[in-house]
């Protein structure tokens, strides 16, 4: 059916509320965008704008994904269905409703469900899947996307997001669900268990084992903001347990609120998201400001630098955390000690790891691949996971989860800041020490938003053009082109292009897997910051002009 026929079909069977919303649409482009396709189920599950329509997040698209997941589990684990599925959700609008819809469809299919009574972070879900030996998990979240979005993430039995080889099989089951009107979502209450804070407390006790100070750190004044999301309770619990009692929460951002009224986007990568935290930090003389996104898997931080605060990038924080963990835990390192980074994560952390004789492994973009590597290493004595991170503010220390964890990272960042403060250094001082030792790296990603059907086509065209052109003709410093779509080493194929540069740095281009964006990544090495910035300005300008892009 075309989009118009699909629209008319929905009007014939949807519930009254959905019909009312659809009947109010008069913009033909809006109708087309809502119905020109089914909301795509990929390796990241579902993510999209909330609203009525086949290309939107709503109870029917959630039910479809859940029915496909149920069919997948019944086929793959026929003798183990009693292990069930764990479900969590964040603070976004309709997250709890969508979680209950997923639970209803799964239990109607005979699959037991454990669902959290309150909103909880992604790392708690990942931990819980492992703790309960569940078949998988679901989190209703759109991570750091704007308030209009929501999503549906699927986790495997190891507690990690499904990698393509498994996600593709699941996608086939989801796409086979054609009749949304007849999906059975009459919940079987006997198969539903509600999870309370005792599970969260067990998670807190588990991640506390990664503490360097075990509840007795040097003094530190901390500002924390949950950005209206799920980190509020668990982050404050772990900071208190870790001995940080001088913690001040940004009151305006403390309450869970899917409107995210105090920020443009609840993304701790953005300076705007931490602006209220830094304001409070200046008022009270704090040493550290931290903020977590709505599902509390990402964390951003700013550190006192004189009278003001300096934001630490994802690449910088990953390198700093590695240095802190390795330098304070030398006695725990063995020849098997290993860290993992993605192919678009900067090189400073890898340099730090190698200086401690820690093995460095690279994966494709996305923490699901880091989680996959961790699970693989469980049966490989030549590798012992120490730390994993990606440039987009995601970090994991410990094997309690298979996804990035802003809760354990909040504790470690605070301990790190307190540790170096005792030595008379700020984190920016330590970063400068690392630059002097390993060379200056300027790491930056730039995203270009291209919405709708036309935007998706444009993103595909840009990737096709970049793949067919000789990038050296545009940027002479390119010495090697890596096309991950053709396959690089033993990595899965993915739509990523990476260009190694003569100065020791690199650039990369990839479409976002969760947003209507194309992303350009830069990891540029120079003699100093000024030289690296000049390179960035030049390369960015050349690429924007060539592909006719603007932020």
Describe the structure in your own words.
With 551 residues, the protein is α/β, with parallel strands linked by helices. It folds into 4 domains: 36 residues, no CATH class; 157 residues, Alpha-D-Glucose-1,6-Bisphosphate, Chain A, domain 3; 223 residues, Alpha-D-Glucose-1,6-Bisphosphate, subunit A, domain 3 (Alpha-D-Glucose-1,6-Bisphosphate, Chain A, domain 3), CATH 3.40.120.10; 108 residues, TATA-Binding Protein (2-Layer Sandwich). Helices cover 39% and strands 20% of the residues. The chain is built from 18 helices and 20 strands. The protein has a 6-stranded mixed sheet with strand order 1-5-4-2-3-6, sandwiched between helices. The chain has a 5-stranded mixed sheet with strand order 8-7-9-10-11, with helices on both faces. Strand 14 and strand 15 form a beta hairpin. Helix 1 packs across helix 3. The two termini are 36 Å apart.
Any descriptors?
Alpha-D-Glucose-1,6-Bisphosphate, Chain A, domain 3; 5-stranded mixed sheet; alpha/beta; 551 residues; 20 strands; globular; 18 helices; 6-stranded mixed sheet
Helix content: 25-40%
C-alpha Rg (nearest Å): 23 Å
Question: Looking at this structure, what is the CATH superfamily of the largest domain?
Answer: Alpha-D-Glucose-1,6-Bisphosphate, subunit A, domain 3
Topology-level CATH name of the largest domain: Alpha-D-Glucose-1,6-Bisphosphate, Chain A, domain 3
């Amino acid at each position: 059916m075309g989009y118009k026929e699909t629209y008319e079909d929905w009007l014939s069977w949807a519930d009254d509320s959905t019909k009312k919303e659809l009947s109010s649409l008069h913009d033909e482009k809006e109708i087309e965008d809502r119905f020109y396709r089914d909301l795509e189920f990929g390796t990241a599950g579902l993510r999209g704008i909330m609203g009525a329509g086949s290309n939107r997040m709503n109870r029917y698209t959630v039910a479809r994904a859940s029915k496909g997941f149920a069919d997948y589990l019944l086929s793959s684990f026929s003798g183990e269905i009693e292990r069930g599925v764990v479900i969590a959700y964040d603070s976004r609008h309709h997250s709890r409703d969508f979680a209950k819809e997923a639970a209803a469809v799964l239990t109607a299919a005979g699959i037991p469900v454990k669902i959290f009574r309150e909103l909880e972070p992604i790392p708690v879900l990942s931990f819980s899947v492992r703790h309960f030996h569940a078949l998988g998990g679901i989190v209703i979240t759109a991570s750091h996307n704007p308030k209009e979005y929501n999503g549906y993430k699927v986790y495997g039995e190891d507690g990690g997001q499904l990698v393509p080889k498994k996600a593709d099989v699941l996608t086939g089951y989801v796409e086979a669900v054609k009749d949304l009107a007849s999906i059975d979502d009459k919940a079987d209450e006997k198969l539903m268990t509600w999870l309370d804070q005792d599970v969260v407390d067990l998670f807190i006790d588990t991640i506390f084992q990664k503490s360097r100070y075990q509840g007795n750190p040097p003094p530190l004044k901390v500002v924390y903001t949950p950005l209206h999301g799920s980190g509020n309770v668990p982050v404050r619990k772990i900071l208190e347990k870790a001995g940080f009692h001088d913690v001040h929460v940004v009151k305006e951002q403390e309450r869970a609120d899917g409107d995210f009224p105090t920020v443009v986007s609840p993304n701790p990568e953005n300076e705007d998201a931490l602006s209220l935290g830094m304001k409070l930090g200046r008022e009270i003389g704090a040493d550290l400001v931290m903020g977590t996104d709505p599902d509390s898997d990402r964390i951003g931080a700013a550190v006192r630098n004189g009278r003001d605060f300096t934001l630490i990038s994802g690449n910088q924080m990953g390198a700093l955390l590695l240095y802190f963990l390795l330098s304070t835990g030398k006695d725990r390192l063995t020849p098997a000690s290993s860290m993992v980074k993605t192919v678009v994560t900067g090189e400073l952390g890898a340099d730090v790891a190698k200086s401690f004789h820690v093995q460095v492994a690279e994966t494709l973009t996305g923490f699901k691949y880091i989680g996959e590597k961790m699970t693989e290493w469980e049966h490989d004595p030549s590798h012992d996971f120490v730390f994993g991170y990606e440039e987009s503010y995601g970090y994991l220390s410990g094997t309690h989860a298979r996804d990035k964890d802003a809760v354990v990272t909040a504790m470690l960042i605070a301990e790190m800041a307190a540790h170096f403060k005792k030595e008379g250094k700020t984190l920016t001082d330590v970063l400068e020490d690392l630059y002097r030792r390993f060379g200056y790296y300027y790491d930056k990603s730039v995203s270009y938003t291209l919405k709708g059907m036309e935007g998706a086509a444009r993103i595909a065209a840009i990737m096709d053009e970049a793949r067919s052109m000789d990038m050296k003709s545009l940027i002479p410093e390119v010495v090697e082109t890596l096309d991950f779509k053709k396959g690089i080493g033993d990595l899965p194929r993915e739509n990523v292009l990476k260009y190694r540069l003569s100065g020791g740095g690199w650039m990369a281009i990839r479409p976002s897997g969760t947003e209507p964006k194309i992303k350009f990544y830069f990891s540029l090495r120079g003699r100093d910051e000024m030289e690296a910035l000049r390179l960035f300005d030049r390369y960015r300008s050349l690429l924007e002009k060539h592909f006719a892009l603007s932020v």
